[in-house]
Design a protein that fits this description.
Elements (H helix, E strand, L loop, with lengths): L1 H4 L3 H12 L5 H13 L6 H10 L6 H10 L7 E4 L27 E11 L2 E10 L4 E8 L4 H14 L7 E4 L3 H4 L1 H10 L2 E4 L3
Parallel strand pairs: 2-5, 5-6
Antiparallel strand pairs: 1-2, 2-3, 3-4
Protein backbone atom coordinates (compact mmCIF):
# COMPACT_ATOMS: atom_id res chain seq x y z
CA UNK A 1 0.00 0.00 0.00
CA UNK A 2 2.85 2.35 0.80
CA UNK A 3 4.45 1.66 -2.59
CA UNK A 4 1.15 2.28 -4.42
CA UNK A 5 0.40 5.51 -2.52
CA UNK A 6 3.97 6.75 -2.69
CA UNK A 7 3.89 7.53 1.03
CA UNK A 8 7.08 7.24 3.05
CA UNK A 9 7.06 4.63 5.82
CA UNK A 10 8.00 7.25 8.44
CA UNK A 11 5.05 9.45 7.38
CA UNK A 12 2.63 6.52 7.66
CA UNK A 13 3.74 5.64 11.19
CA UNK A 14 3.70 9.29 12.28
CA UNK A 15 0.03 9.66 11.30
CA UNK A 16 -0.81 6.27 12.79
CA UNK A 17 0.69 7.35 16.11
CA UNK A 18 -1.20 10.67 16.00
CA UNK A 19 -4.52 8.86 15.47
CA UNK A 20 -3.89 6.63 18.47
CA UNK A 21 -3.09 9.52 20.82
CA UNK A 22 -6.04 10.58 23.02
CA UNK A 23 -7.24 14.18 22.87
CA UNK A 24 -5.51 15.84 25.85
CA UNK A 25 -8.19 18.54 25.92
CA UNK A 26 -11.16 16.14 25.89
CA UNK A 27 -12.03 16.70 29.56
CA UNK A 28 -11.65 20.47 29.17
CA UNK A 29 -13.90 20.44 26.08
CA UNK A 30 -16.62 18.57 27.95
CA UNK A 31 -16.40 20.99 30.89
CA UNK A 32 -16.50 24.02 28.56
CA UNK A 33 -19.71 22.73 26.97
CA UNK A 34 -21.25 22.15 30.42
CA UNK A 35 -20.34 25.66 31.64
CA UNK A 36 -21.51 27.29 28.41
CA UNK A 37 -24.94 25.64 28.44
CA UNK A 38 -25.37 25.94 32.22
CA UNK A 39 -24.92 29.72 31.83
CA UNK A 40 -27.21 29.75 28.76
CA UNK A 41 -24.53 31.12 26.47
CA UNK A 42 -23.84 34.19 28.61
CA UNK A 43 -20.23 33.29 29.42
CA UNK A 44 -17.40 34.17 27.04
CA UNK A 45 -13.87 32.78 27.02
CA UNK A 46 -12.71 34.96 29.96
CA UNK A 47 -15.35 33.79 32.42
CA UNK A 48 -15.14 30.18 31.21
CA UNK A 49 -11.34 30.25 31.71
CA UNK A 50 -11.84 31.44 35.30
CA UNK A 51 -14.39 28.68 35.97
CA UNK A 52 -12.08 26.05 34.50
CA UNK A 53 -9.19 27.18 36.71
CA UNK A 54 -11.45 27.00 39.76
CA UNK A 55 -12.18 23.39 38.79
CA UNK A 56 -8.47 22.57 38.59
CA UNK A 57 -7.82 22.84 34.85
CA UNK A 58 -4.45 24.40 33.95
CA UNK A 59 -5.46 26.07 30.72
CA UNK A 60 -5.03 29.59 29.34
CA UNK A 61 -7.58 31.87 27.67
CA UNK A 62 -6.12 31.37 24.17
CA UNK A 63 -6.65 27.61 24.38
CA UNK A 64 -10.19 28.11 25.73
CA UNK A 65 -10.95 30.44 22.81
CA UNK A 66 -9.69 27.84 20.34
CA UNK A 67 -11.64 24.99 21.96
CA UNK A 68 -14.83 27.06 22.02
CA UNK A 69 -14.37 27.89 18.33
CA UNK A 70 -13.86 24.20 17.49
CA UNK A 71 -17.17 23.37 19.14
CA UNK A 72 -19.07 26.30 17.65
CA UNK A 73 -19.65 27.99 21.01
CA UNK A 74 -20.02 31.76 20.90
CA UNK A 75 -21.08 34.03 23.76
CA UNK A 76 -24.45 35.70 23.12
CA UNK A 77 -23.55 38.67 25.33
CA UNK A 78 -21.98 41.64 23.58
CA UNK A 79 -19.47 43.35 25.84
CA UNK A 80 -18.38 46.93 25.44
CA UNK A 81 -15.98 49.07 27.43
CA UNK A 82 -17.96 51.56 29.48
CA UNK A 83 -16.50 55.05 29.27
CA UNK A 84 -17.54 57.05 32.31
CA UNK A 85 -17.00 60.77 32.59
CA UNK A 86 -13.30 61.47 33.10
CA UNK A 87 -13.49 65.02 34.34
CA UNK A 88 -12.58 65.92 37.92
CA UNK A 89 -15.68 66.04 40.15
CA UNK A 90 -13.54 64.70 43.02
CA UNK A 91 -10.03 63.80 44.10
CA UNK A 92 -7.74 62.00 41.64
CA UNK A 93 -5.71 59.35 43.48
CA UNK A 94 -2.07 58.71 42.49
CA UNK A 95 -1.21 55.84 40.15
CA UNK A 96 0.34 53.35 42.58
CA UNK A 97 0.33 50.46 40.10
CA UNK A 98 2.32 52.15 37.31
CA UNK A 99 1.27 49.42 34.84
CA UNK A 100 2.80 46.66 37.01
CA UNK A 101 -0.21 44.37 36.81
CA UNK A 102 1.31 41.38 38.60
CA UNK A 103 0.94 40.51 42.27
CA UNK A 104 2.99 38.05 44.33
CA UNK A 105 0.46 37.57 47.13
CA UNK A 106 -3.35 37.49 47.37
CA UNK A 107 -5.13 40.81 48.09
CA UNK A 108 -2.00 42.80 47.25
CA UNK A 109 -3.25 44.42 44.02
CA UNK A 110 -6.93 44.57 43.12
CA UNK A 111 -8.46 46.17 40.03
CA UNK A 112 -11.98 47.38 39.39
CA UNK A 113 -13.86 48.44 36.29
CA UNK A 114 -17.32 48.84 34.79
CA UNK A 115 -18.26 47.00 31.59
CA UNK A 116 -21.32 47.77 29.49
CA UNK A 117 -22.93 44.89 27.63
CA UNK A 118 -26.08 44.08 25.76
CA UNK A 119 -28.07 40.94 26.56
CA UNK A 120 -31.05 40.17 24.32
CA UNK A 121 -31.33 43.85 23.41
CA UNK A 122 -31.16 45.11 27.00
CA UNK A 123 -28.24 47.31 28.07
CA UNK A 124 -26.65 46.24 31.37
CA UNK A 125 -23.62 47.34 33.41
CA UNK A 126 -21.24 44.98 35.21
CA UNK A 127 -18.99 46.27 38.01
CA UNK A 128 -16.26 43.90 39.24
CA UNK A 129 -13.22 43.70 41.51
CA UNK A 130 -10.50 41.25 40.46
CA UNK A 131 -7.40 40.10 42.35
CA UNK A 132 -4.32 40.38 40.09
CA UNK A 133 -2.66 37.53 42.00
CA UNK A 134 -4.89 34.80 40.53
CA UNK A 135 -7.54 36.68 38.44
CA UNK A 136 -10.19 35.76 41.03
CA UNK A 137 -13.35 37.86 40.90
CA UNK A 138 -13.85 39.00 44.51
CA UNK A 139 -17.21 40.66 43.95
CA UNK A 140 -19.53 42.00 41.30
CA UNK A 141 -22.85 43.74 40.71
CA UNK A 142 -25.05 44.03 37.62
CA UNK A 143 -27.30 47.07 37.20
CA UNK A 144 -29.44 48.54 34.44
CA UNK A 145 -27.82 51.94 35.07
CA UNK A 146 -24.16 52.80 35.82
CA UNK A 147 -25.03 54.30 39.19
CA UNK A 148 -22.84 54.96 42.23
CA UNK A 149 -24.89 52.39 44.16
CA UNK A 150 -23.77 49.71 41.67
CA UNK A 151 -20.13 50.36 42.64
CA UNK A 152 -20.65 50.81 46.39
CA UNK A 153 -22.78 47.66 46.67
CA UNK A 154 -20.01 45.77 44.91
CA UNK A 155 -17.46 47.11 47.43
CA UNK A 156 -19.62 45.97 50.34
CA UNK A 157 -19.65 42.43 48.91
CA UNK A 158 -15.87 42.48 48.48
CA UNK A 159 -15.26 43.84 51.99
CA UNK A 160 -17.24 40.98 53.55
CA UNK A 161 -14.49 38.48 52.63
CA UNK A 162 -11.47 40.76 52.32
CA UNK A 163 -9.07 40.60 55.28
CA UNK A 164 -7.61 43.85 56.60
CA UNK A 165 -4.29 44.49 54.91
CA UNK A 166 -2.62 47.93 54.98
CA UNK A 167 -0.74 47.15 51.76
CA UNK A 168 -3.83 46.34 49.65
CA UNK A 169 -4.21 48.56 46.56
CA UNK A 170 -7.44 48.97 44.61
CA UNK A 171 -6.73 50.34 41.12
CA UNK A 172 -9.22 51.89 38.70
CA UNK A 173 -9.49 54.44 35.93
CA UNK A 174 -10.50 58.04 36.67
CA UNK A 175 -14.22 57.45 36.19
CA UNK A 176 -16.59 59.58 38.23
CA UNK A 177 -17.60 56.62 40.43
CA UNK A 178 -14.04 56.29 41.72
CA UNK A 179 -13.67 60.02 42.34
CA UNK A 180 -16.82 60.12 44.45
CA UNK A 181 -16.22 61.07 48.12
CA UNK A 182 -18.41 58.30 49.49
CA UNK A 183 -16.58 55.65 47.45
CA UNK A 184 -13.21 57.02 48.54
CA UNK A 185 -14.32 57.13 52.19
CA UNK A 186 -15.32 53.45 52.00
CA UNK A 187 -11.80 52.57 50.85
CA UNK A 188 -10.20 54.76 53.51
CA UNK A 189 -12.33 53.27 56.30
CA UNK A 190 -11.30 49.77 55.18
CA UNK A 191 -7.63 50.79 55.04
CA UNK A 192 -7.29 50.24 51.28
CA UNK A 193 -4.92 52.36 49.20
CA UNK A 194 -6.65 53.86 46.18
CA UNK A 195 -4.84 53.98 42.85
CA UNK A 196 -6.04 55.55 39.59
CA UNK A 197 -4.75 55.85 36.03
CA UNK A 198 -6.06 57.73 33.01
CA UNK A 199 -7.15 54.66 31.14
Amino acid sequence: MLKVSGMARSTFYYHLKTLKQPDKYQAAKEEIVKIFHRQKGRYGYRRITIDLKLKGFTINHKTVTSLMRQQGLKCMVREKKYHSYRGQPGRIAPDLIQRHFKAVTPNQKLVTDVTQFSLFGQKLYLSTVMDLYNSEILGYTIYERPSLQMVTEMLKKVFMNLPDNPSTILHSDQGWHYQNRYYQKMLKDKGINQSMSKG
